[in-house]
Amino acid sequence: MLIEKIQSPDDLKTLSVEELNKLSEELRDIIVERVSVNGGHLSSNLGVIELTIALHYAFNSPVDKIIWDVGHQSYAHKLITGRYEKFDTIRKHKGLSGFPKIDESPHDAFGTGHSSTAISAALGIIEARDIIKKSQISNLKSQIPNKVIAVIGDGALTGGLAFEGLNNAGQLKKDLIVILNDNEMSISPNVGALSAYLNRILTGDFYQKFKKESKAFIESIPKLGGPFSKIAQKAEETLKGLLLPGMLFEELGFNYIGPIEGHNIELLIETFKKIKNTEGPTLIHIITKKGKGYEFSEKDPCVFHGVGPFEVETGDLMGDKTIPSFSEVFGKSLTGLAEHDKRIVAITAAMKEGTGLECFAGRYPDRFYDVGIAEPHAVTFAAGLASQGLRPVVAIYSTFLQRGYDEIIHDVCLQNLPVVFAIDRAGIVGEDGPTHQGVFDLSYLRGIPNLVVMAPRDEREMSEMLKLALEHNGPSAIRYPRGKISFKSQVSSSKKTEITEIGKAEILKEGDDIALIAIGSTVYPALSASEKLEKEGINATVINARFVKPLDKALIFSIAAKIKRIVTVEDNVLTGGFGSAVLEYLNSADIHDVKIKTLGISDEFVEQGSQAILRKKYGIDDEGIYRESKALLSVFTTVI
What we know:
- By secondary structure, the chain is α/β, with parallel strands linked by helices.
- Helix 3 packs parallel to helix 11, helix 5 packs parallel to helix 6 and helix 21 (523-534) crosses helix 25.
- The chain starts with 16 loop residues before the first helix and ends with a helix.
């Protein structure tokens, strides 16, 4: 295999175009095979293989810096930058990251995981290069880059940060190279005026018809040679310049080149070589196909964007399809509620499928909005809807909602507007790693006045909380984990208390020795831990807190007075999280004779790995809760 000879991008330069095309086929096969086992981002990676090869052939990484926006399309980049032998570890615990990571390879120029950041980062790197050169900073001279290239998709271009970067780049007039990878997709199909502009011009009937008819007209005129043909060709190029999206980027100060076929390696290499020494900012518009080369991902690039293990031959996803995910339960519940309440509208940011809103969008297209990768806009857009009496529900992943934090405070909560935030992928997400772990939302939301924050333990509570949130005349947030409903067998055996009041917790099990107060996805592990304790004669009270804000202060007060040994459990960072809320309340109530242990995520970014491995690491699985409960009882007994 050719890939076995590629230890660095320099090795590409020894290959012919024919061999480069063969290499692209090898990379596709390797990526499909590995993602089918490990899960990961498939469609986006298959779409940029020729582009990746051409970039590394024409430029000189790591002296030239290539920055991948989002970074979920960097698998081929990793394979041809010396990581082929470790590629089977991608997304595994302690293995290769599924995203660029600066401490993994010198070829990963900048860590990315959220969209629309590459242009700003690349511009900063260029500006740093010029400052170092001008100021003669001797200890940094060895790090001076030559060319800096930002690769950004048309989906990511819907994010406002991308345009902030483009605006500043056009002003500074530095030799930034931006590759616009146009595949008409982000995760869900692209939406919005900009995407429509790009696609309409490229495929529009008027331009295509003009091009075809003008060529036929010229060829029909006898005895008109080269000069007339050249004039006609020039006229066509002028019209193309007026119609194509290059005009937009030219107005922003960029030299625009394209659109160019993104799966033609020879053409890409030739283009990159010609522009690599161009002065001023340059944007190259590349047209690619998401999921290219694998039948099932080409047909359904949404499903194969971020995918779990699957059968290569059939494209069938593995796993138990009978157990619903929290996302599916949310989508079905919201669709049902919307049938009886015409005020309900759903909003997402390029995540219709991921957030389970396909059903709602199909049933109520006039009340569904996909605003593109524009989380801050989604939040303020919802605030505007709510100000007029509607009930908007904003469904965004926890790690992406961080980008709309100011808008949550200023536009929603300050005005006490009834916006519901459905926060998917909260807590430990798993193999996508630190950029995607949703372990900060309890902390970043809990300190905002007027906001109710809750977390369901299972699908029943998911539906009940959604109904309660929509009835609440103020802002609220429901955070829930990625994946299937877990501990399914315990749902029927544990007590079920309907949620009828905001801020009301429930007692699932009573005992006098210790109290386990858990929130969301940690409730069932706490129940399991209590069963382990019971086998040793230790009786635990288990409380499903349900609400982080407001807390059920009356229940916590009574538990503290009666039991005096409390373990709190959450899948959020401990700093400012649920455990902190309990401690703050007990302190404010002058309750100081209680021994408390808070379990959650320590002060660090959570690495990649399976959810089971990571929960075990942080001691929030049933074994960890059991162990820490025993330790607390031991300390308490010793002190007594």
